[in-house]
Amino acid sequence: MFTHYHKAQSAYQLAYRCVLIMFMLNSASTLASPAPQSNSVDPFWQNATVYFMMTDRFANGDKSNDKQFDRKPDGATLRNFMGGDIKGVTQKIKSGYFTDLGVDVLWLTPLNEQIHGRWDDEWGRSYPFHGYWIKDWTAIDPNFGTEQDMAEMIATAHAHGIKVLADVIINHTGPKTSKDVAWPDEWVRTKPYCSWDSYQGNVECALASSLTDIRTESEAPVTLPPFLIEKWRSEGRLEQELAELNAFFERTKLPRAPKYYITKWITDWVREYGIDGFRVDTAKHVEADVWKIVKAEGTTALAQWKAEHPEQASDNKPFFMVGEVMHFGVDGFKNTPKGTRLYDYGDKQVDFFANGFDSLINMGFAAHAEQDMEQIFSTYSHELNQGALQGVSVLNYVVSHDDPEPFDPKREHPYQAALKLMLAPGSAQIYYGDELARNLTYPDAVGDATWRSFMNWQDLPPADNNAEQLTPKQLYTQQLLKHWQKLGQFRHAHLSVGAGVHKMLQEKPYVFQRTLGATKQNVVDQVLVAIGMPKGSKVIELHTLFEEGAELKEYYSGTTVTVHDNQVTLDTPFDIVLLGALEQ
Predict the structure, then answer these.
(1) Which of the chain's ends, N or C, has fewer CB atoms near its CB within 10 Å?
(2) Rg of the chain over CA atoms, in angstroms?
């Protein structure tokens, strides 16, 4: 890493220390949740379209890094490294792929250096292509690229108006293998396995034999693992890493416990490269108050980066954190008591939003997507604007990398999936390939591997092909991608889609409005959506949503229309209408 804790503290750095102290002073009362409180999340994050990709499975931009640490292609089906890397992501940013899709935020699986060996279990031989078996939090895995590649990717995303979330882990390390030594016992435990029936049974336990559990409950100082010291020494950066750690612990006054070492390591790249926030892995398996300190350190680090790089800092949005809390969801989903934002461990309920999180991944959406749109939209709007989730955010998805029950696993209803996800209140997570109907069913793939195939770029036509040369599969995929792009562009242009208040105006054809009133960000926005309209000529009643003479854009066709007598007239070949003010 190339962080600079050794720099002399300036006045603004002293101010950052106040942020950490504020979070730490409030940490004692966070486990037993009080009544929900409004966090007032920025409408940008409430509406954001987040593109989540498994780095190794998205795009291969540099084939020279495909084979590292003598990793073999002898894993079980879809459990080997397949060549995707950071340069591939950068190339897609530069090509405009994410911009065309209306993406606001990129979320990549962890880029940290992984165990060098493989792991054998009931699911078959596996290599750490997914990024969740960390060996060294301070280095990039060479299968994914270099730290310079990551820096370029983040800078390129920012230059295209796209924010970047790092996928971070404090809960566990990668397993011991024939090539990787175990972490010291003072750092990790391998037993007991989680019992799932209590707070302690979720936190002070190992998730699986492949995930050695960090002793996050401990405040006791520990020394660095010998293997890590030797690794850094061989790489010529031991003195730098030790100096940075000394400076970190001196500044924060935190004990040298495992969780605080990792807190330092995961926030280094924020400070150095301006990462905009974290997606936190396995958040419910770590004591909730730890995340307050992570949030404070991330806030400090991003503020420092913005102060030192004003030409690259496009806005003043604060550091953002979204957590993976398995079985948390809107409207009483599984471990979320109905009408609350609490997570129920069985013997204790925790408000993660009061512990540093601005948003949680909504595990319930894939199940709720079986409902009709009005039921989804009205329920979510109420919960996010008037209910227990008022002032915070949720990240909805139809498919994810380890949810065993995705919506529409056979991709039989991809157009409906897009409409429900992209038009739902809350932020939207596109899992790589949703927009191309990437195959999710591989008969030989066991467990979560079936959702982790390589991106199906081959189903799109080459850029130089004309329509007469397209195969039926390419034509279908191209049209589906256009559908997602139109919905994404609509969300990107209008914060009210995800952050506004929903109101049904007509049942058949289905017509609704979203309105976002004045906020502290001075955002006022409104849109009208109609689904199931006649193709061809149609008249849309506007229900006084837009002023007489206002110019509107219909985002599904790209048509510009003018309001006359509280209506607009359209002639488009589509049955979907997406109306909003012209972009300023």
Answers:
(1) C
(2) 24
